[in-house]
Amino acid sequence: MKTFVEDTSIVKKIWSTTDITLFIFAGASAEFALNKQVDWLYFTGRLPGDPIGRLFSTVKYAQYIIFKEEKEAIASIGKINAVHQNVESARGYKISDEGYQSVLYMLIYYSIVSFELFERRLTTEEKDDIVSTFARIGHHMQIHDLPFDYKEWKKKYEYQLAHNLQNSSFTGDLFKQYRKHLGAFRYFLLLDIQRILVSRQVNHLLDLGRPRLVQLLIPVYRLIRKYKWHKELIVMMVPTKFKEQVKAMDQR
């Protein structure tokens, strides 16, 4: 059975690992809050109403696309397109290519930095694989002008960081919602994880500052991971109602 992403792809290794996937979205949640087109998800009210639930919904869709048979994955992308088209129709105009591109670009970036934080440095070929995989997803989403290798993506991503981010009222409100739905301690961990992962530009716009506790714990956590003792710790780090969804994320 041919899957949308080849079994040998580094993308499957990255997105089959629960803690790496959670870190991808922890980092992306910071950058996404700065996106100039974040107002699109405020239009439906679903993002501010349940930001953590939206995260797990996005993870579920992403893993479905990456791990399922090719025809099923493409059909799933078609459903995502239909949802977006319905929102566009209700609002009266289309989401720009730049809006879609920025989401794909940040998933590429946080896939790379999160994997390298826990595992090892990626080769150029592996980075090219990550970029081309998300470009294929973007192609089926009818997104134009996407890079297909790491070198080209890096130029476009740096441009996007410089021109398509801003700290707006939506940014502040979204971080308030993160705190409300996570609680004080988990919110503290989220910010500290973001300090480790995000680019200098994102850190500057959010005024996150330097990493604190999590950076000190990463070497110990890497050791715990080698012996598979970390899985219960991961489950403890999310609100109770999402524990089963976290367990379901492990694709190995």
Automatic annotation (TrEMBL):
InterPro entries in UniProt: MPAB/Lcp_cat_dom (IPR018713)
Chain ranges of the ER-bound oxygenase mpaB/mpaB'/Rubber oxygenase catalytic domain: 49-183
Top-level taxon of the source organism: Bacteria
Single GO MF descriptor: oxidoreductase activity
Protein name: ER-bound oxygenase mpaB/mpaB'/Rubber oxygenase catalytic domain-containing protein
Protein source organism: Chitinophaga filiformis (Myxococcus filiformis)
UniProt lineage: Bacteria, Pseudomonadati, Bacteroidota, Chitinophagia, Chitinophagales
